[in-house]
Write a structure and sequence with these properties.
Elements (H helix, E strand, L loop, with lengths): L2 H13 L2 H8 L3 H15 L4 E4 L2 E4 L1 H25 L6 E7 L1 H6 L1 H11 L3 E7 L13 E4 L8 E16 H5 L15 E3 L23 E2 L3 H9 L4 E5 L9 E4 L5 E11 L6 H27 L6
Parallel strand pairs: 3-4, 3-5, 7-8, 7-9
Antiparallel strand pairs: 1-2, 5-11, 6-9, 6-10, 6-11
Helix pairs in contact: 1-2, 1-3, 1-4, 2-3, 6-9
Length: 303
């Protein structure tokens, strides 16, 4: 059985489509389909059932997953050993919630790229938890540790959030001296039914039940606040990126959350990924400290 056919089989099982697998592999969908047909002929079984939702594994296909992943791990180990003397290179795909992806990872990626010039860094920002079992990424940053899955979980860092608004909005609105005063203001937050993790339910901390403007994206919320559209709870590490932002009621609203680094359990023996995971963790921690320290060092950040 050809390893390259198994590689294509795994890509289809994870993408659940020929076109999705083709995009990951750099092949056209028809070539992927022919290779799957060849593999099915070699094993003497149908491996996928075509459904309206995509390509689903049959029972025979499901039984092939474990040996295929074992072959994948062996191939990666051989490739890593061959590259060891050449320095760390290849592709590194990092999944992250968009607040982290927008305000932290670009700076961290710059330092990783400078330290490892042969590395190709990809940042995947999704409004949900990245699925490592389907190999959507090599590692992922999450806002809470998962309850299930064959994963290794490492606590990265705490981070903080405060209520904030732009000075232009505050200049035209009634003063805010207490949480009760927020009822006279427009609030900005998450779309309730699109909150994919309970740790993101920030608005409930204010006592305000609904947001006048909402988005499933932290970055869109921040841009609305920047435009003077209302008040929201923002990451402290994002505040230095927006001129004119003011922190409100810091003694009443001061949230603390954590980032977690997730890796597939099969990758724990990969020296390459372990080195990169350590560098990523150190970089994220340092960047949070650097950016958060700027907020409370600037007296004019407080309304």
């Amino acid at each position: 059985m050809d390893w390259d056919d198994l590689r294509i089989f795994l890509a289809v099982s994870r993408a659940e489509s020929l076109s999705g697998a083709g995009r990951r592999l750099g092949m056209d969908a028809s070539t992927v389909g022919r290779r799957i047909a060849r593999l099915e002929q070699a094993v003497g079984a149908v491996l996928f059932a075509k459904t309206p939702q995509g390509y689903a594994l049959t029972a025979e296909g499901g039984r092939l997953i474990v040996p295929a992943e074992a072959a994948e791990k062996a191939a990666l180990t051989v490739a890593e050993a061959a590259r060891r003397d050449e320095g760390i290179g290849g592709q590194l795909r990092i999944g992250a919630p968009d607040g982290c992806a927008n305000y932290l990872l670009p700076q961290v990626a710059r330092r990783l790229a400078e330290a490892h010039p042969k590395l190709e860094i990809q940042i995947v920002s999704l409004p949900r938890v990245v699925n490592l079992s389907k190999r959507e990424a090599d590692m992922a940053i999450a806002v809470s540790p998962p309850d299930t899955g064959r994963l290794t979980v490492q606590r990265l860092s705490d981070y903080h959030l405060h209520l904030a608004a732009h000075r232009d909005y505050l200049a035209a609105r009634p003063p805010i001296g207490d949480l009760a005063d927020l009822k006279a203001h427009r609030m900005i937050g998450y779309i309730p039914d699109m909150i994919f993790d309970r740790e993101l339910d920030y608005l409930s901390e204010t006592g305000v039940e609904t947001a006048a403007i909402s988005s499933n994206s932290v970055s869109v919320q921040m841009q609305a606040i920047r435009a003077g559209a209302g008040i929201g709870i923002v990451h402290d590490f994002a505040i230095p990126f927006v001129d004119g932002l003011r922190v409100l009621l810091p003694d009443r609203i001061a949230l603390r959350r954590s980032f977690w680094l997730l890796r597939h359990a099969d990758d724990r023996d990969s020296r390459r990924l372990s080195v990169l995971a350590d560098a990523l963790a150190q970089g994220v921690r340092a960047e949070i400290i650097r950016l958060e320290s700027q907020v409370f060092a600037a007296a004019d950040r407080f309304a």
